[in-house]
Amino acid sequence: MTLRTKFLLFAIFIHTLLAVMAWYLLQENKFLFLGMELVIIFSVLVTGQLYQAFFKPLKLIRAGIESIRDKDFSTKFMAVGQQDLDELVNVYNRMMDQLRKERVGQAEKHFLLEKLIQASPAGIILLGFDNQVEGVNPAAERFLQHKGHELMGKHVSQLPQDWAKELVPLSSGESTTFRLHGTWTYRCHRAHFLDRGFQHYFILIEELTEAILQNERQAYEKVIRVMSHEVNNTTGAVNSILGSLQYYAPQLEEEHQPDFEHVLQVAIDRNANLSRFMANFAEVVRLPKPQKAPKDIHVLLQELQRLLQPQLEKRHISCTWHLASEPLVVSIDEQQMEQVILNILKNAMEAIGEEGEISIRTQLDPPQLTITDNGEGISEEVQQRLFTPFYTTKNNGQGIGLTMVRDILVNHGFTFSLSSERGLTSFTIRL
Q: Which residue ranges run through the membrane (predicted)?
């Protein structure tokens, strides 16, 4: 039974009792009856005032509770001229002002945090208490190369294989650093926070590739500069001496002249090869920033295919095309990207040797180029080291071809991957 009902029943009982007493007084004394009637009227008026005084604040409190329950902090009450009630109204209004300020502040902080997460260059994966993906920001989508809606609801173990292998064993408070495809280096840190009493986890992904490549580039730039200086000084002096010796060749006996000239020419040629060798290294160091312009990748591929066609025919290597239905126009430095694709195609030809197939595939969404060969394949250990400067598996290689490919693609902002399985090696460039 509510307080209002109890009050009304009590008032009805009292006034019924007074009415009965008035009826008995009517039988005894009319003047006392009239006095009792006045008492009853006065009691009704006082009861009405007490009802208003008691239950109007309760009505206000109930309305305020409903507003708070509906999270409507804009409702405020006006003063009514009653001291006790006005004090309650003032307390309520101050409370609503404070709640509104807190709500606006929390909304602004949440909005700012959401914007920071979305704009952060670091990848953020939000996880539920059961390690299910609850949210990813654009940087994490870029690193994992999957759209957010494709990752939502998946367990960490269901993320792309290379990532799942590193992230599944990661405990809260731990960090790990690893490299993907021999080039892309990431540091991941796992932590947790409390939300409404439940523990949630998140994984922070930081890309270290650019910093590591910059340090690596500075290191081998210094080495190459020193080597080039010493080699060029030496070959220059030696070539000068060899040129002077050629002057004396006619003074030798005729039967010794051919051998003498041949030996000198071999030495000169070896010096020239050494100079070219160092020049190739210097090209990696002096790689300019890309001058980008729109270019149809299909046209570029066809131009390179015509250039390599004689070698393809000589090796009996077929080239199959799976091009997108529409032109794949991308903003690139045409000369540099031509070097990249030409290097990949030559590597594919060398991996096949003879009697094989190269497949060239493009797609529009997302824009991507994939070159696949059925050559000897590459072991996982070698894959991790292929893009390391000066590392090569070729007997006469210098280890700068894929280094230059890597630097050009990184400068363009393109991600890439190299995979080799089931007798097929694929180089994929995400444009």
A: 7-25
295 beta partners: 330
Decide: 346 and 385 in contact? Cβ < 8 Å: no
User: Which distant-in-sequence residues (6+ apart) come within 8 Å of 283 by Cβ?
Assistant: 400, 404
- DSSP secondary structure string for all residues of 345-400: HHHHHHHH-SSEEEEEEEEETTEEEEEEE-SS---HHHHTTTTSTT--SSTT--S-
Which residues, at least 6 apart from 287, have a Cβ–Cβ distance to it below 8 Å?
336, 404, 407, 408, 411
Q: Which of 324, 344, 323 is nearest to 408 (CA)?
A: 344
Q: How many whole angstroms separate alpha carbon 190 and alpha carbon 275? A: 50
Beta bridge partners of 330: 295
Cβ contact 397:416 at 8 Å: no
Residue 295 CA to residue 301 CA, distance in Å, equals: 11
Closest by alpha carbon to 293, among 342, 247, 245, 330?
330
Q: What is the pLDDT of residues 171-221, one digit of tens each?
A: 888 888 887 766 778 889 998 877 666 777 889 998 877 777 777 677 767
Q: In what order do the strands lie in the sheet with 175-180?
A: 133-136, 123-127, 198-207, 184-195, 175-180
Q: For residue 40, what are its two tokens?
A: 């009853």
**Nearest Cα to Cα of residue 189 among 214, 210, 208, 172:** 172
* Cβ pair 208, 121 in contact under 8 A: no
Residue 237 and residue 277: Cα distance in Å, rounded? 18
pLDDT band of residue 54 (cuts 50, 70, 90) is low
**Range in 35-39, 144-148, 361-365, 389-393 with the lowest mean pLDDT:** 389-393
Cα-only R_g, the chain: 43
Q: Which of 163, 109, 107 is nearest to 136 (CA)?
A: 163
CB 261 within 8 A of CB 381: no
Half-sphere exposure of 274 (CA within 13 A, CB side): 18
